[in-house]
Amino acid sequence: MAKKKQVKFTEGKILNNLVRLAWPIILANILQTAYQLIDTFWLGRIGADAVAAVSISFPILFLILSLGAGLTLAGTVIVSQYKGAEDQLQVNYSSSQTVFVIFFISVLLAVVGYFSAAPLMKLIGAGPEILEDSVSYFQVSSWGFIFLFMFYVFQSLMRGIGNVLLPMYVVLATVFLNLVLDPLFIFGYGPIPGYGVAGAAVASIVTQGLSALVGLIILFRGKMGISISFSQMKFDSPWTRRMFNIGIPSSMEMSTRAAGMTVLIMLVTSFGSEVVAAYGIGSRILSLIVVPALGFAMATTTLVGQNIGAGKIKRAELIGNLSAKIAFFGLTAVGLVLFAFAEPVTAFFVPDDPEVIRDGSIFIKIMAPSFGLLGVQQVLNGVFNGAGFTKASLLISVFALWMIRFPTAFVLSNNTGLGFEGIWWAFPISNLLAAIVAFIYYKMGYWKLRTIRNRHRK
């Protein structure tokens, strides 16, 4: 049965291959985002402070997660290129090494996250009304890093060989479980006590632990295109160096985005808990809508990686062209729909707070029309990543967030009559400029020349 699921992504119609890879990734990402949305829905029943406590800790959580998550992308790139070259031994060895390295990193980050929770929450400006809840949520969530990273590895390796349906099924099952466990641990029932805000993190850890266990069992059994083994999980300095060369720029890119979110949340907190809650709801809605861009970017990474591994550079470029068009027109349409329904969508999460509903819907309306531009940037980053040129994605993210978004947000919110809405306007402005830079860099073709040079060196 495993052989029937194997598809050669180095031949056939590009659109068919792109859609075949992208839709399960998009759905899996939507389902993973549903973890946060489900948390927000139930915590909103406690009140705006509960939503704010989670919202303020989320950027720091994402910052720590990104340090290891970028390395899982390196696993995708390396495995996809070996898959395109039809080298199964290296596919298996690279997968085993990825699991080995990421496990130790996840343990380290879990320990650091737990013991640094209180000073981190104080650093980003958590007020006394949300400090205790934000610290407890962060501490519990930190222990979930180990499980979350192990599932990320499974997901990334499966994507590398083009098997995207299996991770989607696992995520689907755990999200349904989280839907039940969230209210159970937040509010309690019978002998199970309610943990309040921390209960949302407890529910997530249980489901993440199950998904990691399932993923590792599949990889060790070796019947779905990848077979890992303990015998190959020994420190390999040259391989680890290669993984870090590809993965560290990706980690830094994700960290840069997370750090940008953290700095922005520090800016947002200066306007009070109501604005923090509006930002939290708006950013979660936006993260759900941007999932298609990330899905197409990940599918593009796999397709470009496999075709480069097979020596089909021109086909890799055609993949990038088509993926960018789909992302731009598709997400622009989605953004316009979201613009029209911004208020009822915001009210769904905090139904009894008119001020939060107003501020959150304004944030969505300002940001939504620029989704197509964000899609172009993400997809072109996917091309660069598939070629192993992750430094390009890093440089574009640094430009978008640190040279454009944060300075613009600070200036508009503190030196104009816009107030906190100036922060909202920084999003579409940075999306526009980042898309232009990414497109120009893509058309310059350095990523292709670099790939050809690397092949000649081999």
TrEMBL record:
It is found in: Cell membrane. One of its GO terms (biological process) is monoatomic ion transport. It comes from the Bacteria. One of its GO terms (cellular component) is plasma membrane. Keywords: Antiport, Cell membrane, Ion transport, Membrane, Transmembrane, Transmembrane helix, Transport. It is a multi-pass membrane protein. One of its GO terms (molecular function) is antiporter activity. The chain crosses the membrane at residues 21-38, 50-79, 99-117, 137-154, 166-189, 195-220, 258-279, 285-305, 326-350, 362-380, 392-411, 423-442. It holds the Pfam family MatE. InterPro entries: MATE_fam, MATE_MdtK, MdtK-like. The keyword GTP-binding does not apply. CDD domains: MATE_like_12. The keyword Ion transport applies. This is Multidrug-efflux transporter. It comes from Salegentibacter flavus.
